[in-house]
Amino acid sequence: MNPLVTPGIGLLFWQVVTFLLVLFLLSKFAWKPIMAALREREANIDHALSMAEKAKLEMQSLKADNERLLNEARAERERILKEATEAANHLVEGARAKANEEGQRMIENARLSIENEKKAALTEVKNLAATLSIDIAEKLIKRELQDEQAQRALVQSYLQEANLG
């Protein structure tokens, strides 16, 4: 038979001794550094995963903060727009009230002016009528009193009216 297929006891013995010797040398010199490197790599991977998780949580926190700030900015914008609209409405109402007040004052002044001019015109008409009446009466009396007979009749009529009244 072929010696490779069925090894001899001596060969088997030296293979075991060599394996144990390599195992001992590897465990003494190489096993600890390999295990330390694996532990270090595992720690680095765990650290990287925890940092990634922290970054993810921080990003979520920043996103929530950004959303909150955006909502606050929107609310502030709405408040400012509302205040501006109210201020504009207040100004418009104030201007409208002032214009109405000014219009009423002008109407009242015009009414008073018209009333005063009307009174002045009536007074002037009355004065003119009185002057005309006096002029007419004067002319009539002059004409009637030129005649002595007419004067006596006039005095008699005044006396009769005075006694009766």
Automatic annotation (TrEMBL):
<dbReference type="InterPro" id="IPR005864">
    <property type="entry name" value="ATP_synth_F0_bsu_bac"/>
</dbReference>
<protein>
    <recommendedName>
        <fullName>ATP synthase subunit b</fullName>
    </recommendedName>
</protein>
<keyword id="KW-0066">ATP synthesis</keyword>
<dbReference type="GO" id="GO:0046933">
    <property type="term" value="F:proton-transporting ATP synthase activity, rotational mechanism"/>
</dbReference>
<comment type="similarity">
    <text>Belongs to the ATPase B chain family.</text>
</comment>
<dbReference type="InterPro" id="IPR002146">
    <property type="entry name" value="ATP_synth_b/b'su_bac/chlpt"/>
</dbReference>
<keyword id="KW-1133">Transmembrane helix</keyword>
<dbReference type="GO" id="GO:0045259">
    <property type="term" value="C:proton-transporting ATP synthase complex"/>
</dbReference>
<comment type="function">
    <text>Component of the F(0) channel, it forms part of the peripheral stalk, linking F(1) to F(0). The b'-subunit is a diverged and duplicated form of b found in plants and photosynthetic bacteria.</text>
</comment>
<dbReference type="Pfam" id="PF00430">
    <property type="entry name" value="ATP-synt_B"/>
</dbReference>
<keyword id="KW-0175">Coiled coil</keyword>
<dbReference type="GO" id="GO:0012505">
    <property type="term" value="C:endomembrane system"/>
</dbReference>
<keyword id="KW-0375">Hydrogen ion transport</keyword>
<comment type="function">
    <text>F(1)F(0) ATP synthase produces ATP from ADP in the presence of a proton or sodium gradient. F-type ATPases consist of two structural domains, F(1) containing the extramembraneous catalytic core and F(0) containing the membrane proton channel, linked together by a central stalk and a peripheral stalk. During catalysis, ATP synthesis in the catalytic domain of F(1) is coupled via a rotary mechanism of the central stalk subunits to proton translocation.</text>
</comment>
<keyword id="KW-0138">CF(0)</keyword>
<dbReference type="InterPro" id="IPR028987">
    <property type="entry name" value="ATP_synth_B-like_membr_sf"/>
</dbReference>
<feature type="transmembrane region" description="Helical">
    <location>
        <begin position="12"/>
        <end position="31"/>
    </location>
</feature>
<keyword id="KW-0406">Ion transport</keyword>
<dbReference type="GO" id="GO:0005886">
    <property type="term" value="C:plasma membrane"/>
</dbReference>
<feature type="coiled-coil region">
    <location>
        <begin position="45"/>
        <end position="120"/>
    </location>
</feature>
<keyword id="KW-0812">Transmembrane</keyword>
<keyword id="KW-1003">Cell membrane</keyword>
<keyword id="KW-0813">Transport</keyword>
<comment type="subunit">
    <text>F-type ATPases have 2 components, F(1) - the catalytic core - and F(0) - the membrane proton channel. F(1) has five subunits: alpha(3), beta(3), gamma(1), delta(1), epsilon(1). F(0) has four main subunits: a(1), b(2) and c(10-14). The alpha and beta chains form an alternating ring which encloses part of the gamma chain. F(1) is attached to F(0) by a central stalk formed by the gamma and epsilon chains, while a peripheral stalk is formed by the delta and b chains.</text>
</comment>
<keyword id="KW-0472">Membrane</keyword>
<dbReference type="GO" id="GO:0046961">
    <property type="term" value="F:proton-transporting ATPase activity, rotational mechanism"/>
</dbReference>
<comment type="subunit">
    <text>F-type ATPases have 2 components, F(1) - the catalytic core - and F(0) - the membrane proton channel. F(1) has five subunits: alpha(3), beta(3), gamma(1), delta(1), epsilon(1). F(0) has three main subunits: a(1), b(2) and c(10-14). The alpha and beta chains form an alternating ring which encloses part of the gamma chain. F(1) is attached to F(0) by a central stalk formed by the gamma and epsilon chains, while a peripheral stalk is formed by the delta and b chains.</text>
</comment>
<dbReference type="InterPro" id="IPR050059">
    <property type="entry name" value="ATP_synthase_B_chain"/>
</dbReference>
